[in-house]
Amino acid sequence: MIRTWKLMRFCAQTSFRIRFYRQLSVVSCVQQKLSPSFFAPRGTRASEVMSEVQSVTADGTDKKQMAAKREHSEPESWGAEDELLNNRKIIPNLKVSELLKDVPRSKLRPKRKSGDEPREAAKPAPVHRKTAIEKDTLQILQHRYQDSNESEERYDKELKVRYTILQSNDDRYRDLMMLIGSRKNRERERMLVLEGRRLIMDGFQAGLRLEAIVTSDLKLLAELTFKPKLKSCPIFLVKRHTMMEWSTLTTSPGLIGIFGEPSNMSELVTRNAAGSKRLPVTVVCDNIREPNNLGSIIRSCAAVSVREVILLKGCAHPWDLKCLRGGTGAHFRIPIYGPIETYQLPEHMRAGSIFVVADNKKTTDERNGFRWKHYDRIDYGSADHIVLVIGGETYGVSDDIRNIICQLAQSDGEQLQHDRKILAHIPLANGVESLNTASALSVILYELRRTLLQLEDRT
């Protein structure tokens, strides 16, 4: 113990100093505690130790040459790393983030020498080029309903028509937008909106009164065959993104016709169907929610020439824009009633009718006296009138409609009610559960038409 104390005293008084990177001996520890150089503030000790190490070299190399080699080989961030190494034991739980948070970022990166080659220029970020769909979307989003420009009247010499370049600050712009976008406004104003060249031509040929035409390209007017009528009809030219915004289709045809609703639609239908013979068939639609399917059903009924189509509440509206497009002009060639309430159905029925329910959901289901038969084995000529009922693809014909059919069949006599309620079944293969509503109806209608025409030829 006495010898250790004398050794510590001798080391403290002597002027000879020993420097190592890692101080492990007892003498070195004492010398670190008693040496005045270790009482310097943190951050300055590492540079002093570095200068003293450079001054004392084992092989006697020149101080300036050794300092130049170390300066060239080691970055300026060595001071922070050396400080972390020497203070690891002094400060408990020392973290790198605590040590480097006060060190300037310039000291952590080696400076580039004047003789070094310049670094490669940073590559510019790739420029994203917008697609046509993105450009149209941006135009729609950036579109404002207030425009400083005024609507302008012009004349096209090639088509020989006058048209109006419609701006968004015009009152007619707002009226057209509300008329095309809202069915309630169309019903209040008694207007019909037909989109596309073919549907506009069908409406004009059916006898509807043309009120206005909206287009995004004047060249589309040349495809219309009733060019003389265009001279007395207002024509509005709007921007392409406006037409896309108003259209109900994914790809707008760029042409919309505004027609006035006739005061007597049944008279118009009778005039258009004067050359065809009506079959004694009434089609009842129950819960057909898809407008495209309903339009296809009305189209098939017009093609077979049934007497009328009745829509119950829950079906899509027959004058919906998508339903009109699916019908392709059939709405003006066949009587359409509804949507009506279920209790109003008996008012449209005829006495002595047979009821055929097209429903594949419940095969061999003979509840309430319904007889299950294949669609091509039904005796369609056993009654004066046929009521064909079809439901939606998901739920089929509801039980409420079946109960009403039972009540109507009982009113004709108990002996006939079992023969007047039939479930028509369409056989399917390859595990297919059911057909599309419009397809199933078309199959039954054409079989019904074939049977009735054969009976007519025999008589």
What features would you describe in this structure?
The protein has helices at residues 2-13, 26-34, 45-55, 63-73, 78-86, 96-100, 132-141, 171-181, 183-189, 197-205, 227-230, 240-246, 265-272, 291-304, 321-327, 399-410, 437-458; strands at 152-156, 161-165, 191-195, 209-215, 235-237, 255-260, 279-286, 306-312, 336-340, 353-358, 371-374, 385-391, 421-425. A seven-stranded parallel β-sheet has the order 9-8-7-12-10-13-11, sandwiched between helices. Strands 1-2-5-4-6-3 form a six-stranded mixed β-sheet. It is built from 17 helices and 13 strands. It has 459 residues and is of the alpha/beta class. The longest helix has 22 residues, at 437-458. One of its GO terms (biological process) is methylation. One of its GO terms (molecular function) is RNA methyltransferase activity. Keywords: Methyltransferase, Transferase. Residues 60-75, 113-122 have a biased composition (Basic and acidic residues).
